[in-house]
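Question thread 4412

I'm putting together a teaching handout and wanted feedback from people who do this every day. The idea is simple: show students a protein as raw sequence, then show them the structure tokens that encode its fold, then repeat with a second protein so they can compare. Below is the first pair exactly as I plan to print it.
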Amino acid sequence: MEALLETTKFLENKIQSRPQIGIILGTGLGGLVNHVEITQSIPYGNIPNFPVSTVESHKGKLILGKIGGKEVIIMQGRFHYYEGYSMEQITFPVRVMKMLGVETLFVSNASGGLQPYMEVSDLMIITDHINLLPDNPLRGNPYPKLGPRFPDMSEAYDKALIQKAEEIALREHFHVHKGVYVSVAGPNLETKAEYKYLRIIGGDAVGMSTVPEIIVAKHQGMRCFAISVITDVGFEDKIKQVSLQEIIDAANKAEPAMTKIITELITWC
């Protein structure tokens, strides 16, 4: 709690007005910041108590500014369990966002598609998730002042935002799916047997992030919207070896459509 208060005070002294919207950008999706009226750009290393992103495709900057007239705070790069961070460290920025005044959280990620109808660079609006990470950010002392001990997760993703995102995608003729996101520890990609297992248990896409941040956001009563870029496909007939660069390239190809959906949602909400 002392760390949260210290970091919040540091950022409050940097910002001109309280942000309404929080955004977390995943692998290869940092270009959204090009659509922001930026007032501040702060490297994570300059922020007290912030972890530092160790993934080469994550810029590691906190961006403050406006989108569509709304005050936003953007993580250009996130933290992952596979980097060696604790769940508390991974979700620390979401706690800070809430203390700064954020009520709605938008999250993007790169993920592996699990369904035969998915293609590389498709988008998937997340409607639910399955948590296969080996820890939970609410384990231990969840600080009762921040939220309930047993938060309900039956509607983790906001239905109104999902419906509006579908309307935007339909109007713009974007190839967008809806589905269940499975979060795993990583950092290795899945085996063929694991892809099959994840599909059997109800997954539509698999990745290594997002769920911890959503859990903490819901714990604090925030509205949540999340979207995946399908950067590789793990269905039997479509599985092939992929490199990090290929994943980044696939995310970059889909980024304009994802950016359009998120910027319009922010203006709308």
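The second pair follows. I'd like the answer to focus on this one:
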Amino acid sequence: MSADSTDRAAGPADPVSPATHTIGYVLKMYPRFSETFIVSEILAREAAGEKIVIFSLRPSTDARFHPELARVRAPVVHVPRSSVASRFWAQFAEAAASPALAEGLQRALPELLEAGHDDAQQAVALAQSAEQAGVTHFHAHFASMATSVARLAGMISGLPYSFTAHAKDIFHEDVDPAELQTKLADAHHAITISGFNLEDLQRRFPAETSRLHLVRNGLELSRFPFTPGRNVRPADGDPPRLLGIGRLVEKKGFHLLIEAVSRLHSLGVPAQVSIAGDGPLRSELQERIDGAGLTSWVRLLGPCTQEEIGELLGTHDVFVAPFVVGADGNADGLPTVLLEAMARGIRCVAAQVTGVGELVRSAETGWLVPSGDVTALTKALLEALTLDAGHLALLTAARSCIEDHFDSTSQAATLRALVHDPQSVSCRESLVGSDTATTTVPLPMMRVEEPV
């Protein structure tokens, strides 16, 4: 496949019958508060008539959940995992009693013995559960643990597998290139979410990426109505309101947002800031806020549901995503919340890392600034807060970009077509105007903490 790739190859009129397959989604943990994009994808595929079964390799540790989970019809199977190594052989013997799995177990045994205990045991258990559920195709999110288990389970069961690669799973410094190469080569097809990722993987693995496709994460657009309203002209006398959303970890760059707000105040712009999310840097960020004298101006809201995020997007003037590459090499991908902000009609200021520049383009769909540059960030915020008639056109262009390239309905149709025949999907990168100079430079291998 050429470097030209497509994010909207198949449409709703694609002739593939949704009932042809039962897709087994293999996920490290389900549900997960931060992985709303997976829920949106599953909902879109179910709405198109596909049958889904979800396999969770780890129990959820989140305390809060989004209400959209209640709309997912797919059953959730928690794949057993024992701390006792001997349980693997008991699981193996149980599976070998199935005529449908016996030959595959023999074929997979050498790789099962080389795999980690957890992966080996869960692969056997997944193959058993998939047989019972009538699964015809495995799909994993992230090219790490979930894909390792799906690949082995596919080898045992004789089922094809595919996976979606995001960022941490392909750029982490601990990613074994040979293992990733094998996963790409053995997959029925593979997917990645940005042109940046696509070109990087094609450069690194030219022989194994003929079935690698660009399929961007989608939004259920009906849940994100375009309502610029206040976001174009706040009420007279109201201070400007900035919004940041994400886990409180270094790669989100919220320390730069605090510094930029301090500079805005020194320039006579009394901006208020809400930061939604939680994480290990909460105490450190609060200390920065207090030390800068911004205690009454910057609020850390903690984790918020999708409904609460929607309210925040509708009541703030500028969404700020000051991403950085951390000291440990940790960087962000293309966070769903940035798509949501652009869909709703809020002005967006973002820092360029990985594929962000494919979506946010200065003077077209938002303000793109160099990562780590607080001076550029402050200047962009000042421009974004300047009210003029041109901002409505910019917000409209941003919404159009989301509708054209990030609609979960089109995403679901493409995913369905890929399961039917990956070679039938012709891909072309069509985010016209993106700065290829900032989106195609390969990243170094990056260390990325769990979870996102």
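Top answer:
Good format. For the second protein you could add a caption like this: Residues 222-404 form a domain with the Rossmann fold fold (CATH 3.40.50.2000). The first helix runs from residue 36 to 47.
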